[in-house]
Automatic annotation (TrEMBL):
This is Sodium-dependent transporter. It is a multi-pass membrane protein. It comes from Endozoicomonas gorgoniicola. Residues 1-21 are annotated as: Disordered. PROSITE patterns: NA_NEUROTRAN_SYMP_3 (PS50267). The lineage of its organism: Bacteria, Pseudomonadati, Pseudomonadota, Gammaproteobacteria, Oceanospirillales.
Length: 465
């Protein structure tokens, strides 16, 4: 008999986690690859360079990296720990951390808000992922004599955008229907190494173009006078959470599939390191490419120093640079946008999983049916955004990443450190880390996630509002 999605009183109250019939990652490396794939995506390679270019280059990069380790990493440990502790879907997990009925309902409500936010992110994420697929196929179409098809794929018309968005969603859904081990883990193990190889090759290309080294200096040499800029701080905070897929339940449900023998703090640090490294490397690719394009006469910034069409920056600027390389540029363009498509796909599969897990475990859906129903509903949202893209795309990104995700991360920090009992917290984290109680991590992390993390997040949110 199916359970309702919102009933917070039926959450498991015992200490025994719900594990029956649930998938699990086959190894720690498999989890790291999948979690890094969850974190590495559009946030790193599309959004991060744009935010960097809009907020002073290296100053933004420095603040983003600081937030990644002083706010995102502790929150990531809390979110993964909640998931592994309960080993159930996000709604059941959050509702089960307290015996207090009010806290149960607030926890369940937080999880549901996370799932709704994740659905919104998946809807605009698929649009951008679809553009990546379209722009990776366009050079191939041109090289094989189908120039008109290539122009259509990269033309940003409503019809072509809907088509590539649905293609991207279809690929994502096919992977997620296969489950944790055979779908998510297997494909992340294949896609992530390809991403790193393509990224390294393209960075070398970018730095050898005229103007590339100028872009690198802008990217690496910070203007310290901008570090405390209000817009920069809130953008860096939102970017660190968006990039790491925090607050929306992705990492919590991934944690629920994680073996209890894994050292959680160490593994979370490795995921954070991979994610921030890819973002940093993406900046080393995109920013030099921007300045190389400027060197060729392409206008990037307007008279007031703002980016032209920020959301479509990589699509408007970089193809102009690639076109000047002739046939070679077509191959480079295909490789570049294939890189972006791979990054987007590794994240999008994680975006479906929390909602699918809740539908399967709480509403008794068959996994395949849950996947296709979710994609159908999300596709409808995506089409609405596409038909009003100049207004709704930027609004959806801002609402989800700069408001909802920080607020959800605030709640995760509260539940992961205040609501869950400290003896249970210690017991759970000690699995895979036997010497936890005597470690520096345990001396800092509990009070840090109780006071510093929620305090800083709340301060920045209130200031931004």
């Amino acid at each position: 008999m199916s359970r309702t999605m919102t009933n917070c009183n039926d959450a498991p109250n015992s200490n025994k986690p719900e594990t029956v019939g649930r998938g699990q990652f086959s190894s720690r490396i498999g989890f790291i690859t999948a979690a890094a794939g969850c974190a590495v995506g559009v946030g790193n390679i599309w959004s991060f360079p744009i935010q960097t270019a809009e907020n002073g280059g290296a100053a933004f990069t420095l603040v983003y990296l600081c937030f990644s380790f002083i706010l995102a990493y502790p929150t990531l440990v809390a979110e993964l720990n909640i998931g592994r502790y309960r080993q159930s879907n996000n709604i059941s997990a959050m509702a089960s951390l307290s015996a207090n009925p009010a806290l149960r309902c607030i926890g369940a409500g937080t999880a549901i808000a996370g799932l709704l936010t994740m659905t919104l992110i998946y809807s605009f994420y698929s649009i951008v992922g679809g553009w990546f697929i379209g722009f990776s196929l366009a050079p191939i179409a041109s090289l094989t004599g189908f120039a008109s098809a290539g122009q259509w794929l990269s033309g940003f018309s409503s019809l072509s955008t809907i088509a590539v968005t649905l293609l991207f969603m279809g690929l994502t859904t096919l992977i997620v229907t296969e489950g944790v081990k055979n779908g998510i883990e297997r494909w992340c193990n294949r896609l992530m190494p390809s991403l790193f190889v393509l990224l390294a090759v393209l960075i070398v290309f970018a730095l050898t173009r005229p103007g590339g080294m100028e872009g690198l200096s802008v990217y690496l040499l910070p203007d310290f006078s901008r570090i405390l800029d209000d817009k920069l701080l809130i953008s860096a905070l939102g970017q660190s959470f968006f990039s790491m897929s925090l607050g929306t339940g992705c990492m919590m449900v991934y944690g629920s599939y994680l073996n209890r023998k894994v050292n959680l703090p160490k593994t979370a640090f490795q995921v954070t390191l991979v994610d921030s490294s890819v973002a940093f490397l993406a900046g080393m690719l995109i920013i030099p490419c921007m300045y190389a394009a400027m060197h060729q006469g392409v206008e990037i910034f307007n008279a007031s120093g703002e980016l032209y069409s920020a959301e479509k920056l990589v699509f408007n600027v970089l193809p102009t640079l690639f076109d000047q390389l002739g046939i070679t540029g077509q191959f480079v363009a295909a490789a570049f946008f294939l890189l972006l498509a791979i990054a987007a796909l590794t994240s999008s599969i994680s975006m479906m999983e929390p909602v699918v897990a809740a539908m399967v475990e709480r509403l008794s859906f068959v996994r395949r049916h849950a996947c296709w129903l979710l994609s159908t509903l999300t596709a409808a949202i995506s089409i609405v955004i596409i038909l009003h893209i100049d207004t709704l795309l930027g609004m959806a990104v801002k609402v989800a990443t700069q408001y909802m995700q920080p607020m959800l991360c605030f709640m995760i920090a509260i539940y992961g450190s205040w609501v869950i009992r400290q003896d249970r917290l210690l017991t759970e984290l000690s699995q895979g880390f036997p010497d936890l109680q005597n470690s520096l991590f345990w001396k800092i992390w509990p009070w840090y996630t109780r006071i510093v993390c929620p305090g800083l997040i709340l301060l920045l949110l209130v200031h931004n509002l």
